[in-house]
């Protein structure tokens, strides 16, 4: 049987089974999370390590991303997001969790479309993660 690691305390626990539980977890870690879902997908509109003027501890965003992926795998839903300003660091960050750039947008990334000084071209490239 697959084991789930409690990413907060290092114990094995049940996976996240509702989006609400992921939102609560984010709240606890002071991570702002704007997510919604339909029958087949989860849309991640925003994640930030700052909530009600309290900064999240380093790495809290990654813990919330892992929780969200755990729920997405349980619910068999794809996660979709847009990378703000085509930020290269953020694209690599999301790749760690199994996200891939939409092939159409990958062409634009490779052509340097989003390489503007302030990353002001919006929306950024779309990325998606297939459930496991
Ligand atoms: C993206 C985010 C939620 C990730 O949270 P996290 O997993 O807890 O990671 P951390 O914030 O601890 O960042 C880890 C490291 O990456 C660096 N980093 C974060 N965002 C970066 C960026 N866009 N470019 C370069 N480095 C970045 C941090 O400074 C930190 O560096 P350090 O290890 O030298 O201290 C968080 O960095 C954040 O709130 N970013 C601002 C909001 C944002 O861009 N959201 C994404 C919208 S698509």
| N-to-C order of helices and strands | HEEEEHEHEHE
Structurally, how many domains make up the residues? 2
Give me the side-by-side strand order of the main sheet.
1-2-5-7-6
Label the structural class.
alpha+beta
Instruction: Give the uncertain stretches in residue-range form.
Output: 8-12
Brief digest:
With 132 residues, the chain is of the alpha+beta class. It is 32% helix and 22% strand. The chain is globular.
Give an account of the 3D structure:
- It is a single chain.
- The chain is globular.
- The model is unreliable at 8-12 (pLDDT under 50).
- The protein is 32% helix and 22% strand.
- The chain has helices at 19-28, 60-75, 88-95, 103-110; strands at residues 32-37, 41-48, 50-51, 54-55, 78-82, 100-101, 126-129.
- The protein has two domains: 4-81, no CATH class; 82-129, no CATH class.
- The chain has four helices and seven strands; from the N terminus they run αββββαβαβαβ.
- With 132 residues, the chain is of the alpha+beta class.
- Helix 1 (19-28) packs antiparallel against helix 2.
- A hairpin with a 3-residue loop joins strand 1 and strand 2 (41-48).
- The two termini are 15 Å apart.
- The strands form two sheets. Strands 1-2-5-7-6 form a five-stranded mixed β-sheet.
- The longest helix has 16 residues, at 60-75.
- The relative contact order is 0.16.
- The structure holds coenzyme A (COA).
